Structures are given as C-alpha cells and as structure tokens.
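User: For documentation purposes, I need each entry recorded in a consistent format: the amino acid sequence on its own, followed directly by the corresponding structure tokens. There are two entries in this batch. Please keep commentary to a minimum and don't merge the entries.

Assistant: Recorded as requested. Entry 1:
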Amino acid sequence: MRLGLLSWMGVGRWRLSTRIVALSLLLLLLVQTAGLLVVRASIERNAREQIRHELQLGDRVWRRLLDQNAEKLRQGAGLLAGDFGFRAAVNSGDIETIRSALDNQGARIGATVTALLDNQMALRALNDTPDNPALTAAIAEITAPLAKSELGGTVALVGNTPYQFVMVPLRAPLVIGWVLMGFPIDQTLANDMLTLSGLHVAMLTQARGQPAQIGLSTLPDASLQALQSAGAGVTELDNDDDSLVTRHVDLQAVGGGVQTLLLRSLNEVVAPFQQVQLVLLVITVLGLLLFGLGSTWAARRVTTPLSALVQGAERLGRGEYEQPVQYTWRQDEIGDLANAFDRMRKNIAISRNEIQQLAYWDRLTRLPNRLRFRDTVKETILQRRNDAEAQPLAVITLNLDRFKHVNDILGYALGDRLLMAVAERLLLRMDEGALVARLGGDEFSVVLFNADASQAMEAAKTIANAFEAPLSFDDQTVDLSASLGVACWPQHASDVDSLLGRAEVAMYIAKRKATVFELYDPALDSSSKQTLSLLSELRYAVEHHELRLFLQPKIALDNGRVIAAEALVRWQHPVRGLVPPDAFIPFAEQTGFVRQLTLWMFDEAARQWAGLQQPGLPLRMSINLSTRDLLDLDFPARLDALLDKHQVAPEGFCLEITESAIMDDPLRAEGTLKRLSDRGFKLSIDDFGTGYSSLAYLKRLPVDELKIDKSFVMGMERDPDDAKIVRSTIDLAHNMGLSVVAEGVENAAVWNLLREQNCDEAQGYYMSRPLPVDGFKAWRQRWAERAEA
C-alpha cells in the first residue's frame, strides 16, 4: 500500500510544489471520504433505528385495527342479540326469520359470517351456505375459546383465509344462545394499515399440514416475488437496490398459523438524508478545488524562493559571488535561509580572496609564490610560442647557503627577517620588468621577460654581488651567500616546468662546485637523468654483493707502523665496471640511501676486522659517517647489533665525521656522538679546517682525533701559509688532548715536515692508494719488511 502510494505520488520525479499539492489534496480527500463514509454509516444506522421504532408502532397500530374491527363486530352482534324480534324468532325456532336477521345485520356491519349457536355451542343457523365444511369446522373449533370470554375475539384460519370472529350471548333473560360474527382480514385492512403507518403489510398463512403462503400483501409485484423466494423467516429483504426491514406479528390463529409481516423500505427512510449527502459531496468537491488552489499558491510561495536559492547555490558552485541572494527581505524561515545563503556567499567571497592570497602570494615576504610564478612564466611562454620574433626569457633560481645554520644558531625569528631582507635586496637589484618570487624555504627565483643567456648571467652576477655586504639585524651581523642557476627559454627548455627544473639543476651544480652561479648545461642534466634508475641499482648492488671494501692505511709517524686503515666503498657494476665514489655517494646522501651504505661498510669492516689483526700490532678501522647517520636516533643501536653479530669490540673502530655533518644539526649530532663515545668508539673530525665549526662546539664534542684536510697538507711544502695552518692545527689538537691525522700525504717532503711538527698519523698516496682487503694485507706485509730493513 505504501509503495503504491509513493508510486502514485511519483516521489523522486515530481517537483516539490507538485508533491506538496498532491499530498495536501490526498490528505484532504482521505479526510473527506472518511467523513462521508462516517455520515453515510451514521445515516443508515439512524435509519434502521427509526425503522425499528416505526415497526414497533406499526405492530401496535395493526393490533389496534384488529381490535377496532373486533369491537365493531361485537357491537353489531350485541345489537342483534338485544333485538326483541330476533329473540322471539329464536324462542319460536323460526329458522328463516333467524337467517334473515343474521343476513341483514351482517350486511349492515360488513360481517361476512353470522351464525346462531345454542347453549351447547351447536350451530343452529348460518348466513352462509351450510355446505362449507371448512367454515363449519372453524366455527366448531373457535366456540369453546370464545365462550370462555364473553367479549373475546379470535382469529381463525378458514381454508387459507384468516378470519376475525367475535361471539356474544343471547339472553332472554337467561342465556338462550350465542350470536357469532366474523369477517375476513382482507386487502382493505392491509391498505388501511399502509395508509395509516406507511408500512407495507403481508399476511402469511399456513394451514395444518400445508406449506406457508402469502394471503395478501401491499408490496409491489417484484418485492412480493422476492418475499416468496426468501421464505417466512426473513427479517430483512433485499430487493434490487433497496432493503425492506420486516417485523413479524403472530396473530395466534385457530386452525393454522397466521402471521402479519410489517415491512419498511430503507431507501424511503434514507431518501430525505440523500440531499444532505449530496450537499456534503458538493462541499467536498468545492473544498478540494479551493484547497488545491490554496495549496498550489502556498507551495509556489515556498518553492519559488527555493528555486531562486538553488540557482544562487549553483552560482556559488561556479564561483560567482557578486550577485546577492534573493528573498532576504522575507520575515520567515525562507528569509532566514536566504540570509544564511547570502552570508555564506559573502564569507566564501572573503575566504576566496584570502585563499587566493595564500595560494599566489608568500605571506612573509609579500612576493609571489611558486604557483603564481609558474603561472606567470607559463602564460608568457604560451603567448610567445607562436611568435617567430618573440624575445627570449630567462629564469634565475637562487638558494641561500647555510640558511639552516642561521636558523639553528640565531633562531627562526631572525631567519624570517633575513628572508625579508633578501627579498628586499632582490627587488632593489632587479629592473621593474622582472618578477621576483619566493619559491619556498630559502629558495627564490627571478624571471627576466626579455633577456638572453648573456644578459641573464649578468643579472645573476648582480644578484650575487648583492650578497657581498653583510646583513645587520639589531646588534647581529650575518654574512650570507647564495648559489644561483640560470636557464633560458627557448634555448634550454620549451615549457615552464622544464625551464624551472633546469634552472634548479644549474643552481645545484653551482652549489656543489661553489661557483656562485651557473648557466644550465645539457651535459649536466644528462648525468642527472642517469640517476633516475641509480637508487634501484644501488639497492640491487647491496643485495647482490656488488659493493667492495677498500682500505687505505694510516701510518704512525713516530715509528712508521700501520696502526689503522680507512674503510672506503667501491661499486663493482656488472656493466659500468668499477664506479667511482663520486658517482654515487652524493646521490646516496641526497636520497638518504647513504645510511644503508654506512651500515654495509660497518658490517663488512666488522666481518673483516679479525682477519686483519696481527699479534702485537692491532689495526683500527676508520669508517666515515654522514649527516643522516648522525640524525638517526637508532644509529648507535644498529652498530651495537653489528658488533654483537661479529663479536667485535667498539674500541677497534674509529668513526669519522665531517664538520659540515656536525653543523647541520649540532645539538642532535652532539647527542648521537656522545652515545657513540660512551659505547667505546673513537671519534674523529674529518676534513678539519674546511667547515664552519667553532672551537666552542669542538670543545663540547666527545672527539678523540682531528683529521687535517688534504687541501692544507698537499701544499704545505710550497705554501708557508698552509704549513702554518697545519702546524697550528696540530698544536691546537694536542693542547686539547686530541691526536692528529694528516691526509693527502703524497711525497716524502710532506712526510718529513709532518714528523717535524709532531703529527701523529699520516694517510695518502705516498704510502698507498686505497686497496682491496687482500691487496691491503699484502701491502702491509711489504711495508713492514721495508720498515725493518
């Protein structure tokens, strides 16, 4: 039922206004239909109650008619019994006179039967022919009950005709006989009953041993036939579209059964109320019409603003926030909704402007950000792409050096001020036609809309010169430098992403080569393309044992003994051959894979350690650590696991750390180094003198050794300044209780100078190049033999 109703209403297909009107009309129709059904049932119930009451009255009226007829007969019989002549004729036995008197008196009062009975109730005279045995039998049967009540009357069935009889005594002065009178209950009496009460009458008679039959009736022929078919026990008779309610009146007849059926038409009683029902139906139709019109108006009053709000929401979805929302003037829920939509429109517009600011502008420097910079360059390239005479454009990408160090030492607040100062300097040094943007972090970029490669390099030089003067903030002065990369369109790239990427490649090359600024070179980029598959190849190399451990000896300068060796990694590529470290170590550091390389080196060195030891001549293994190793909080635990694996003590290893690795995150590096020192590892500062570390950090770090960078050692025999630096470093280290290793020893002169300056250890090609493990063992044997000789 519910599904059918929803289907009829067309839920999901009709518009809201149509559904509101349809639902309202349906509810009203249901209410009105229920009302009409209730009214009709009430009318029918009241009609039946009225008929029941009328039939009760009809019963009394019918019996009253019979009583009146009986009274009329008694009066006529009494007159005849009081007639002197009639009594004289009875005394004399004059039968002819008696019959004549009976006929005359019967005709006068309408009695069809008049008779004279003697004291023994024997029939002496009858106005009818004496040959009617049924009448004679009926008179003989009714005399006994009539004699018991002098004024009584009774109904008797004569044949199939009901008769009403009365009997009065004939006195002279004693009772000398009885006068009997009777008449048939005929159609006239039934018609009188219909006239008086409006009730139809039907007489049912049933002689002894005979079926019941209808003696008389006021019913139409069709109803009479229906009554004959229904039988004698019917209480309600259905006749076509009408119902006849009946009431049975038993007349207690002698000689058979006599019943009177009183019938009342239900339609006749209901007929006066049909007009009321018709009026109600008209009112219902008019109500539906008016309610439909009202519902349509109300639904449109609701749905029309909703449609306008839907259109407003669609405009908001398209990003059109200028047109105000309609119906905000209404003082109802629709008005509240419209006002809410309008406030949402305004808030979205404000948020959109803020988002655009955040999306296209850097909030710190107020410069365009990467997205706006890219869109501007892209739009310019698209405009010039089909123009053969279009001017070239150039992109200069700039990255600050040691900016993270500034943040760590001076704090992020000063770092933000530094970025704003850099932006200001760039804006001052660039022409108005250039666009300066901050791409993110400490990276900036400039687009020159009409510049070739030579002009762009001049602009890059101008930017580099802008960093020569230090930046001053309150009482703090900061020396800052930058690395710049230049790429041009259409010379170096045909689209915006390639152009920006190649400018960044050139910038990284400048940072790596320390040349301040570089112009993009396709040769540089081709090597970077090779690194796309390098990471997976490195993983494969570790898993399939393509890496090799090489050792370079460290010699004690005081006695010439081999006391240590620096572990170095080499890659034996199945296709490329022996890959030099410079070809994959920087990439491994950039991607973070250097941590796996460090663990591989330590694992391999620990595995080889026992085989490299000689009685009385312990050999210490030195392993280089990267910045990512020091920032890994789990790194000391990983080394512990490898030591346990090979049953080697940490005192057999020296861990070398560059100054730059320490200064990237001094606090974190310091914590890691302390944990390593506590475990028993010897710690060494590699490439000392080339970084930016301070003596304060050097004093705090738990290091045991300084390793002087080869750039100072190799030139100390020719350059007095390099010699002074080496001598000062040795003295500084010894004063701090540290040992000193000099790397880059390539001739005997440098060897002797280092011995004179009390350097502890030396490392370099003069003694040996890096060798495989087996080659190192053979070399050490030869070195020992030569030292003894």
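Entry 2:
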Amino acid sequence: MSLKKAILYLLLCSVSVLSSQNDIPKISITIDNQPLTEVFKTIESQTEYKLYYIDKWFNGNTISVNYTDIFVDQLLKKVLAQTDINFFIKDNTHIYLTKNNVVYNTLPEDFFSIYKKKDTLQSQTSNLQTEKTAPLFTKKIATNNGSKITTYRIGKENATNLRRTAVLSGKITNVSNGKPISDLSIVIQERQKGTSTGKDGSYKIELPIGTHILTVQGLGYETRNLRVIMYNDGALNLRMQDSAEALDEVVITGNRDRNVEEAITGIIKIEVEQIKTMPLVLGERDILKAALTLPGIANAGEGASGFNVRGGKTDQNLVLLDDGVIYNPTHFFGIFSALNPFSTGSATIYKGSIPAEFGGRLSSVFDLKTKTPNTSEFSGEAAIGPVTSTVVLETPIVKDKSGLLVGGRATYSEWILRSLDNDDLRNSQASFFDIIAKYSHSINENNDIKATGYYSRDAFSITSDSIFAYSNRMASLRWNHKFNEKNRGRLILTNSQYKFNIEFDGKTNTDFDLEYVNNESEFKAEFDYLHSKIHKFKYGLSAKLYEIDPGRVDPLGPDSETAKISIPRERALETALFISDNYKVSDKLRLEAGVRFSLFSALGEGIQRIYEDNGPRNASTFIETRAFDKNEIIKTYGGPEFRISGRYFLSSDLSIKASFNNTFQYVHTLNSNTTVSQTDTYKLSDLNIKPQKANLFSLGIFKNIEGNKYELSFEGYYKTQRNLLDFKVGAQLLLNEQVEAEVLQGDGKAYGVELLLRKNEGRLNGWLSYTYARSFIRLNSEFSEERVNNGDFFPTNYDKPHDFSLVTNYKFTRRFSASANFVYQTGRPATFPLGNFEFNDSDYVFFSDRNSFRIPDFYRLDLSFNVEGTHKIKKFAHSFWNISVYNVLGRNNPYSVFFVTEDGKVKALQSSVFAVPVPTITYNFKF
C-alpha cells in the first residue's frame, strides 16, 4: 500500500471507527480442541459481526477456550496472541483479520515530520532504536535483474510497542536430504551487509522494520532471492536446492584455505565422499585405511590393526565415534574397518596439537562423526561387494525436526580365507557384522539432541577346536544448547565396552571358556564462549569411570578338568578440567592456547603387591599384599597438560605454525605382539605401573598455490616419552595376577618430517605424501633382567623410516574415472637368530639384540576404474561401480618373518596376507 492511499483510507474510516468502539458486545463460548475458526463462527452466531479472513491462515490451528460474558475484542486478543494475526473492528458489523500488519485508525502526531525526514525505514542506520516510530508502509523493491521473487512476511506488528528493528532467525536445510547447510551467505541487497549459516544451518540477523531483498547463496546450491517484510521478530526456515550446473570435477572448497589459516598444527580432515574412488582392498570404502596414505600415520604392515602416529604405540590413539570410545575399530584381522562407510560423515585426526577438550592418549585423536539423519524424506545408500554388503537407511520421524539413521554391514568372507597364502587361515572360518543407529531431534532453534548406538562383533575359528570372538559396544547421548549468540554448550554421556572370549573344545578334558571385558562410562560438559572477534573460549569438565575385568576362565562342560580362574577387577576414575582460547593477536598472528588438568585415581576394591625398592620386581623381591576397600583410593596421579599452537601469516597464502603439547595416559595395552591383537588386554595405572607421559614439539610451513588448487605442507616434529610399557622376554600377560612383574617401563623418543602435496582441482587430482620418521625406546635399569639391549635406545617394532604414498584420480568424463595408489614403506624391525649352541646335550638358538634387523621393504600398486551412474534427475537411485585390482604387481610383501628348525638347521620363513593380485567389483547405489 502506498503512503498516500494509506492516509486517505485512514481518514475515511476513522470517524466511523471512533464512534463505535464503545459498543462492543459480550459473548459466552466453550470450545474443546476445535479448529480456531470455530471461535469466529461462534462470534458470528452470537453477535451481528461478520468476520473476514482467509481459511488457510489457520490450517492445523486448534484451541480450547471457556469464557462467560467476555468482550469480543478481549476474546480475539487472547485466541490470536500466539499467532501472527491482528484484527480491526469497524462499526458493529465488520471485523477484519489481517496477517502480520495492523490497520491504524489514527496517525502519530509527528507522522509527517518522520516521513519527510526519511523516505523509508530501510534508510535508517543509526538511531534505529531511539527515534519515535510510525506505522509500517511497505515499498516495492526489485532485484538486480528485476525478476519475480517470493515474499515472506515475518512477525506480528504491535501498534502499542512499535520497534525500529527486528531479529530474523531460522535454519537452512538441503531440500533433498533435510541436512543443515553451513557457510551459506545471506546478504541484504540494499545494505550490502549480511551473515552466514553456522554448522547446524542456523542464522540470525537484525534488520530494520520494513521490506528487504535477501540473497541466499553458497557453493553447490542455487542462488535464491527473497523479499522479506519485517514486522517483528520471527523465524524463516528455508530449504535449498542443489545446483544443477554441470561441473568438470567435484571440488571440495568448504574448508578453503583451512590448512593455511588454522592455528592448530598436525590436523587432517577426511570426507568419505573424497575417498570413494580409491582402490582399497576388496572394494571397501574405508576412511581409516585412507588415513594411512597421509603423512605421519602408519601401521605395522598389511592387514595389521591399529595405527602408529608420529612414533607412538597403537594404544596411544583415542578413536571416538560420536564422542564415544571405540577400542578396536577393525574387522577380520585388521583387513576391514569396523565403521560403516555410509554412516560415517567425516573424520578429523589430530596428530600434532591436540585440543584441550581431548585427553587420555599421548599420540592422536581420531574424531569420527556419523552423518546427521535425513529429516525431510526417506533415503538410503548401499553397496554390494565380493566380501561384504553394506546398507544405510535414513527416515524422518517428525518432518524437518527429527530423523533416524540405521546402518548395517555383514560379510560372506569364507572364500577370501581360502585364497590367502596361509594354510591355517585357508582352513579357518570367520564372520563379522556391525550395526549403527543415530537419532537426531531439533527441539527448537536453541536445543537439539543426538543419540547414537553402535555394536560390532567378529567370530572366527582358526583351528577346529576353538572359537574366538570379540565385540565393541558404544552408546552416546548429546544435548546441544544455545544460551545466546555468544554462549553455547553441550552435555555428553557415553558408554563403551570391548570384550573378547575364547571357547576351547578339544579332544582332551581341558575345555574352557575365557572372557575379558573392558568397560568405561564418561560424562562431559563443554561450553563455547564467543567473547569477541579476538577471543573464542572453550571450557568444560569431564569424568570417566574405568572398569576392567582382566580375565575369567570357566571350565566348559561337566567333564572339563580346567580350574576356574578369576583375575580381580580394576577400577579407576579419571577427571579433568580444561579451558582454551582461540586468540587473534593480529591479522597475521593467531594462537590456540589451552590447559587441561587431569586427575587419575585408581580405586579399590582390590589388592596391590608391594616389592622392595632396591631390587627388580619379581617373586624374590615381593614383600606383601595390601588390600583396599571398595572405592578407596589406591593411588593418584595427575597434572597440567599444556596445549599451545600458533600460526603466523608470511603472506596471504603462506603461513608458519608451531606447537607444543604435553599429555598423560593412564591406561596401557598389554601386548607382546608387533601389532594390535584381539587378545590385547588393558591395564590401569596403579601402585606399580605409572602413567605414560609425552612432550611433542612441532614446526611446519603451509602454502596454497593458485588459490586453493594446490596445497603444500612441510612439517617436522620431535617427541619425548616416559613410562612406555614393554615386556620381559617370555612374558605371560594374559590371566596373570602379577602382571606388573612381567612388564617394563622405559623412555621413548621419536622425530620426523612430513611432506604433503595435494591437488584439489582439475581432471587429475589427488595427493602425494612422504614421511621420514624414527621411533626408539630405551629399557634401562640397574638390574640386568630389566635391561634390554644394554640399556641403549633401540628401534621400536613399528619404526619404519621411509613411508611414501601416491593417491591419484583422473576423470575422463563426468561419469568415468580411473584411480591409482602406490605405497612404499621401509621394512619394520625384527629380531633374528644369529647362531646356535649345544648345552647339556640340547641345542639352543641365541638371538640378536632386540629389533636390530629388518624384514624386506614393502611396496604395492593398486588400480581401479570407476563408473558413475547417469545424471538423470528423475530416477530411483544414483549408482556407482568400482572395479579395482589390489596389489596389481602381485608383490609377496612379508607381514612377519619367523624361524623354524629343520634337519638341525634354522630356516627363516615369511608370512604374507595378500601375495597375489586381488580383483574386486563393487556396486554402490544411493536413493
């Protein structure tokens, strides 16, 4: 409505309105959960009023009222209070309902002076909150190209409390899957100012009362122009359509320049979609295997479980799935990941500067996040391969508010065992499965909850008389709350369990069932405080309860002669307080500084053995046992952990970073093998075993070339460690009540340099990584039985100086591409026999110093050809074929070297996991 027309209308109707306001009748009304329009019909039936409105304004609105002799205008105020509908009474015959705006019967005294000074409310920029206001008259505003756009009216105008500004807020989601969209820009065209959406797709912006043109745009989405008429505070939720523009290649730019700009060192972010073309073993899309191609992350060999990050042991990595710990994230002897690739959204790996909110491990954090369920429509993704089949389904529970994701994976792996170059494995059986479910619910714009449940199980039989099984179980609950624009918080509850059991049913009367259980529960409260553009704080607290059953053996069957064994349970409480500050010192210098104070208390009920201080820990130096009551503190450890990292811009696309971390680890793996074993047990620090400690220094330079087309980084590190757990020769670690007498604790050191060159754009993309790394341990003591290699530093089992990976993908067209991986690694250390001797008519073999030799070097080439489905818009599912050959060269890479005696001679033999090329074809489809 133009200003002149509005004034004329008000002058014509004001006399009749003023003369009739004192004659409003009363009515009595009772309605129970009926449509709101029933109120209007009751008014019309009991009075002479005729109401004018549009039915669709009230679709789905119900109400319950019970009033006696209430004025009609008071009734309307009550029933319309929670809507954006106003009303206007004219004479005693007409009531006009209006959406958003108010119909005025008088004008403010200074109305004409206000509009003479300012043509429109949109031009006001300074004293918006203090000047007297006037009725809102909207103005036509065209887009830059004059195109027709949709108009949205926001809020409910209030004639008695007019404001100059109002707050527009809301959430933007993807129309195809209901997932929130981050980093979208929302620009006010006439003001050239705006905001952007956060990680959860939410936004908030303060606008002058009146009409505005908003442009919403972002990479990969169609640009939208909106006309927004602001009457008062209100919400506008939008659903964005993927861009239909054809691209030559998929370019990941959501974290553009992140590698140069972030203050944290040694951070890696992996998106599952980025690795779908990689030729991994047996066609499995595996985010953890992809991590092994990046610098600083390695393992002991092909098919090995666990990770060695920057010279650390496999038990020094914290693997989190939606905040819950996963102790053994592998299937099938380490060949497959135990994480469903279609339910996993992303992985952030901290191998340098670990943020203060994480603790309990020395080397790294693998922070894995499950995808947010689709809240708009049913969708899914599945894959059929030669060994496994995988499926993930997503469905809305309450449309655009809550959704459920359910995924599962199972194997039909018998044939792969028969093809392995190992007689024992060829005659064995194995199976595994994993399931995951995630529920997400948006309560309102300030609160949402997420719950995740996960379970995996492996069972196999290598010999005909035993069955081995292990499982992971995890549950997590997360409540996110937004206090205001500057303060956000999260409450997290998790529970994790790892267990294994061995069932032996042989020909003798020694049948048994062995079981081990490791359980932990954690409460965590985290808070973010956006103090200013200069300071961003994160702080909180956590408490974790460990409960470990080190092992129990029960006789299997009534005829078994096996004695029952039960090792006492271990319990401990680990608590921590932490705070960190992301501090922008200047445009060039940014610091990420934090401190975490952790406190560990070993708890009773339990027994601790006391040994002499001036002797080796063995039966001869044992003094006594000391008993502790339930929840009595056995021993306390703790201290501050400093996390400091900084970035300095040498130019806009070149930065240098440095960091220092010190960390504590209170839980240890008992393992006499080179790699992670499914019979690994965990030991908590106590009177005899001290916590592990580490200091890590790192320095790196980071460069972007041609925008973000190429990324180059060069990083070096030096790590010192204390109280590393190792074992004595011939140690018995499982089911040993005096395990502290079988282990040693020593010092470690590691250093290395890491190079990464990544090409993000073009037909040819991928990365090249090279790591030179050394890792050493020293087990020194004044007592010979606790001294290894004369007390000198010697290479760890996982010390592999050279590690080179090349990952490439070439796109012939939008549908066809080829990929290749090449990996080279130095052979890991090993202990070899040097000769034999005869003593008391018996032959003996004497060995070299521990880890003084190496097995042959490892290298492997993998190739794949990838076929995307057609890009038709209307079809049931989008398909993707992956045809790959793992170990194209048929390289017989040794996994381990062992020795046997034949005809009085010692012979060296090697075992391999994949000694021949392994072809695979996998079909993936997404709907």
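Summary note for entry 2:
Confidence is low (pLDDT under 50) at residues 1-21, 117-133, 244-255.
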